[in-house]
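Tutorial handout. Part one gives the primary structure; part two gives the three-dimensional structure as tokens.
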Amino acid sequence: MPMTAAAECRPPEGWLANPGTSIPMLPALAQRLLQVVGNPDVSVMQIAQIVAKDPVLAGRLLGLANSAYCAAMRSISTVTEAIVRVGTSGVRNLAVSVCFNSKMYDPNIYGRHGRLLVDHAIGTAYLARLTAEHVRLPADEAFLYGLLHDIGKLVVRKLAFDWNRRTGTSIAESEIEAAIDEHHAEFGAYTLRRWHLPQTLDEPVLCHHDHRRAVRDRRTAAVACVANRLSHRYGFGCDPDACNILGDAASRELGLDDAWLAQTDAYAPGLYEVARKLVDAKA
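Part two.
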């Protein structure tokens, strides 16, 4: 049977039950952008009218369009020009990034983990894009599943917070960490369904620790695995882990080599710092 969030997510009893109640809702603006960007007949002007309603998003979009990431040769100053330069998928990804980022700063819910998980998500998103481009897979889609691959961890932490608020009983950190290890991938895929994101994102999120579990597309899942491991290698939102990237099964699946890794090692840290500034809700 194809691996879907509905098939995989079997919430246990107790505080981990009903994960849907702890999934943050996307703002109306992001939902509207996701709808219109998926329409092949939508015009740049229609997208610009939506983006212009949110000054923060419009500012981030202009920053992205004028950044070195877009290889900007000429400065632009209008939202419409920025959309043309970044592309409609790029606008969608930026909108989800900004919304995702802005919701994860409540220290009462996430403590220090929110900031770290956001940093890790941003780093993994750009690494997934780089990896997908190298192996000729859809890069904008890779950015999105890289960004959202660990969102299930935030759902688990919100479930623990909600349980404490509802019952007055705190969940031990060791129990939360164990639940994250066991359930975060399936809770992440479940979240994508609740947000009505493209179903092609489900499998990379669900299988980002083992691409061999993928049923539909092992190479796409392998990109998610490699991007996650690279993000740990560089310490993006976590302690650096000197893991053997090229010895991993996902890297072999994609045919990655020493030259690719050397180039990524040189390029990724600078890209990460630029990316954080572009989407940081506190910038």
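Part three, for discussion. The chain is about 65% helix and 0% strand. The radius of gyration is 19 Å.
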